[in-house]
Write a sequence for this structure.
C-alpha cells in the first residue's frame, strides 16, 4: 500500500467519523430543543393560568368590598335613622316628663287647695306609690334606648374593621397580579429574570444537572479579552458546548397584541421583528463561539420563552431563521 492510498483511507475514516459525531450531536440537540419548547409551553400556560386566577380572585375581592361597602352604607343610613329616632324619643321623653311634672304639680296643688291640712303623710305616701311605677317605666325606657345605641355603635365599628381588612387584602392581590403582569409585559429587568428562570427549569426538566451538565450566568473571557456572561452553557460530548441566550424583551409584541388599530399593529409587528433580528445579530457580533476555554459549536441558541412571539415573527419574516443561522 503506497502513501497516497494510506492518506486517502485516513481522510475517508475522518470524514465518516465526523459524520457520525455530527449525527449524534444533531439528535441530542433536537431532543434538547424539543424538551425546551415543551417545557416553555407548560410554563407559559402555568403563568397565564396564574394571571387569570389572580385576576378572578381580585375581582371576587372587589365584589366583596363593594358588597360590604353597600352594607356599611346601609348600616350607616340605618344608624342615622336610629340616631334621629333616638333624638326624637329623647325630646318626646323630656316633653313628657315636663308635661307630667306640670300635671302632677297641678294635681298636687289642687289637692292641697281642696284638702289643705287634710293631706297627711299617708296621702303623700299613696301619691308616691302611684308615681313610682311611672318613674320606673321611664328609667327602663331610657336604659333600652342607651343599650340599643351602644350595640349599634359596636356593630358599626366591627363592620368598618372588616371592610378595611378586605380593602387591604384586595390591594395586596392587585399588587401581586400587577407585578406578575409587568414581569410578562413591560419591566425589562423582571422579564430577564423570568426568562432565565424558565430556561433553568427547562434544562432541569430535560434531566440536566446544574454545575455538571450546564452552567448559568458564568463569567468568561471573549476573544478580544472582554468579559462575557452567557445565560446558559450546556456541555455536550467530546468537550463541546452549546451556548444559550435568553431573549425576553418583547415590549413591541405585547403592544402589538393589545392594539386594535391595524396600522399601529403593523408598525409594532415590524418593530418586534426588527428587535429579534437585532438581538440575533448582536449575538453573532459577541463571538460566543470564540470564548476562551469553551469548545462551542458553530452557532448560539437564542431562547424565546414566549412561542407566539417567535411564531408571529416567523410568519411576518419567514427568512429570519435562515438569516440568523
Amino acid at each position: 500500500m503506497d502513501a497516497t492510498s494510506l492518506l486517502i483511507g485516513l481522510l475517508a475514516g475522518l470524514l465518516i467519523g465526523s459524520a457520525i459525531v455530527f449525527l449524534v450531536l444533531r439528535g441530542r440537540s433536537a431532543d434538547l430543543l424539543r424538551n425546551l419548547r415543551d417545557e416553555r409551553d407548560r410554563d407559559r400556560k402555568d403563568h397565564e393560568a396564574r394571571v387569570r386566577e389572580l385576576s378572578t380572585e381580585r375581582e371576587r375581592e372587589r365584589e366583596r368590598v363593594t358588597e360590604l361597602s353597600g352594607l356599611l352604607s346601609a348600616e350607616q343610613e340605618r344608624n342615622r335613622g336610629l340616631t334621629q329616632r333616638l333624638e326624637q324619643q329623647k325630646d318626646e321623653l323630656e316633653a313628657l316628663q315636663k308635661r307630667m311634672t306640670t300635671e302632677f304639680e297641678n294635681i298636687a296643688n289642687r289637692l292641697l287647695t281642696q284638702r289643705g291640712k287634710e293631706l297627711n303623710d299617708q296621702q303623700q305616701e299613696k301619691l308616691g306609690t302611684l308615681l313610682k311605677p311611672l318613674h320606673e317605666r321611664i328609667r327602663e325606657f331610657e336604659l333600652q334606648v342607651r343599650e340599643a345605641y351602644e350595640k349599634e355603635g359596636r356593630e358599626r365599628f366591627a363592620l368598618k374593621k372588616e371592610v378595611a381588612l378586605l380593602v387591604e387584602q384586595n390591594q395586596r392581590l392587585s399588587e401581586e397580579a400587577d407585578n406578575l403582569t409587568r414581569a410578562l409585559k413591560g419591566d425589562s429587568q423582571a422579564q430577564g429574570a423570568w426568562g432565565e428562570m424558565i430556561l433553568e427549569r427547562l434544562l432541569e426538566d430535560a434531566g440536566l444537572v446544574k454545575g455538571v451538565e450546564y452552567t448559568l450566568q458564568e463569567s468568561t473571557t471573549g476573544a478580544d479579552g472582554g468579559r462575557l456572561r452567557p445565560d446558559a452553557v450546556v456541555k455536550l460530548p467530546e468537550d463541546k458546548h452549546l451556548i444559550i441566550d435568553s431573549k425576553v424583551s418583547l415590549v413591541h409584541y405585547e403592544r402589538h397584541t393589545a392594539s386594535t388599530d391595524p396600522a399601529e399593529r403593523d408598525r409594532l409587528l415590524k418593530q418586534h421583528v426588527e428587535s429579534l433580528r437585532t438581538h440575533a445579530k448582536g449575538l453573532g457580533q459577541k463571538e460566543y463561539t470564540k470564548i476562551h476555554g469553551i469548545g462551542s459549536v458553530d452557532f448560539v441558541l437564542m431562547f424565546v420563552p414566549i412561542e407566539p412571539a417567535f411564531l408571529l415573527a416567523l410568519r411576518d419574516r419567514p427568512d429570519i431563521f435562515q438569516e440568523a443561522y
